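User: Let's play a game. I give you a shape written as tokens, and you guess the letters that built it. Ready? Here's round one.
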């Protein structure tokens, strides 16, 4: 299943991690490239901690990371079977999306 997630903040990144761990191909979208970089770094840190705790191994970390693509063009989500909106709780911004 292809999952598109709009918003790469805490909620969007968490959803991306769970979906990718479940085997979904995830596209995490944000208009801000720095936010996407932060989300990628945060996921790497979280997965590294899970390895340290013995919850996953390095192969699982690599599989999860390979299942997530970071995109800054909304059109990139056009092949998603499921799209999840996880942006800031601002009604005006949500209406634009």
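Assistant: Ready! My guess for every position:
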């Amino acid at each position: 299943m292809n999952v598109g997630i709009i918003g790469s903040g805490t909620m969007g990144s968490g959803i991306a991690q769970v979906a990718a761990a479940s085997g979904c191909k995830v596209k995490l979208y944000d208009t801000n490239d720095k936010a996407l970089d932060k989300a990628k770094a945060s996921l790497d840190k979280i997965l590294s901690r899970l390895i340290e705790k013995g919850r996953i191994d390095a192969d699982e970390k690599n599989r999860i990371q390979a299942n997530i693509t970071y995109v800054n063009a909304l059109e990139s989500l056009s092949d998603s079977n499921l799209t999840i909106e996880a942006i800031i709780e601002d009604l005006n911004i949500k209406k634009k999306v």
